[in-house]
Write a structure and sequence with these properties.
By secondary structure, this protein is α+β, with helices and mostly antiparallel strands. It folds into two domains: 87 residues; 179 residues, C8orf32 fold, CATH 3.10.620. Helix content is 54%, strand content 9%. It is built from eleven helices and five strands. The chain has a five-stranded antiparallel β-sheet with strand order 4-3-2-1-5, covered by helices on one side. The chain is elongated and about 80 Å long. The chain starts with a helix and ends in a 6-residue tail after the last helix.
Length: 285
């Protein structure tokens, strides 16, 4: 029976080590991917946002580029494109016409221009998303930007509006009055930063449960990078997997040493021996 237990342990130990190695490789790959995406976005934003511009001017520069920038590629089947890849969203005309991917493009450029920005979902009464906009932190206020219509929402005096301001029907009507064809149903009574309606646990009313434990939980953490950039999501996921497997490996090592009393391959010891063999000065007798 003890032999069976030891065989099971060795199988689990080796499997954990292989999984840890693969997760480290995934982490290194995703780190390189995220670095290349950041370099691309930095170069892109530097080309369209004036150096040293004030925050409001940076926002407007991005919207101006989205409105009248150079001709971009067209694709008749945008559903087949990588919707959360920044290079794709910035270079396909149709993706910049859809609220979700237009907001994705804006948020990536805004962050690369040293702006604090996050997505905001406008919800219907059944909590389905009817529109996606962005919020940008300017002068201590989260003002609303609609990348799909390329505008900062303002009142009649030109003051930039927050989502709290736009809950007022009169303020909302005044903000969109000068925008031809702007849908009047894009109101701000119900909003969210994270949409979990598509999760299979929705029948368990998971949002209601989380809201009861931690009200405004989706504002306490910046979810935008995780939701808008595949490379950062992969990097974060890989980091969590590496951490989990390291803890699991450490637990298995403790169990082997303290309970099973069996020998195991000690990487640090072997690496120490290799280092000693290569770098130590041999004794001459």
């Amino acid at each position: 029976m003890a032999n069976v237990g030891q065989k099971l342990f060795r199988t689990l130990w080796r499997s954990t080590n292989v999984a840890l190695l693969l997760s480290v490789l995934l982490f290194l790959y995703s780190a390189g991917w995220e670095y290349s995406v950041r370099r691309y976005l930095t170069g892109f934003s530097d080309a369209i946002v004036p150096a040293g511009a004030a925050p409001e001017k940076r926002v407007q520069s991005i919207l101006d580029w989205m409105r009248s920038g150079p001709t971009r590629s067209e694709d008749l089947t945008p559903g087949g494109l990588a919707m959360r890849d920044p290079e794709t969203t910035l270079n396909y005309e149709k993706l910049l016409s859809v609220c979700g991917t237009a907001t994705n493009a804006f948020l990536n450029l805004a962050r690369s221009s040293r702006l604090q920005a996050r997505r905001l979902l406008l919800l219907a009464p059944d909590r389905t998303a009817k529109h996606v906009v962005a919020e940008v932190l300017l002068d201590g206020r989260w003002i609303v930007v609609d990348p799909t219509y390329r505008l900062i929402l303002r009142d009649a005096s030109g003051r930039m509006l927050t989502r709290s301001d736009l809950k007022n029907p009169q303020a909302f009507a005044a903000a969109i009055a000068s925008v031809p064809g702007y849908p009047t149903q894009y109101t701000y009574e119900k909003v969210a930063h994270v949409r979990i309606a598509r999760l299979p646990m929705e029948a368990l009313h998971i949002r209601r449960l989380i809201d009861s434990v931690s009200p405004n939980w989706d504002e306490k953490l910046d979810w935008s990078l995780l939701l808008e950039r595949e490379s950062f999501f992969t990097l974060t996921l890989a980091a969590f997997v590496v951490l989990f497997l390291l803890l699991l490996r450490q637990s298995l090592a403790w169990y082997a040493d303290r309970r099973l009393m069996i020998s195991r391959y000690r990487l640090r010891v072997h690496l120490g021996r290799v280092g000693s063999a290569f770098f130590s000065t041999p004794e001459i007798k």
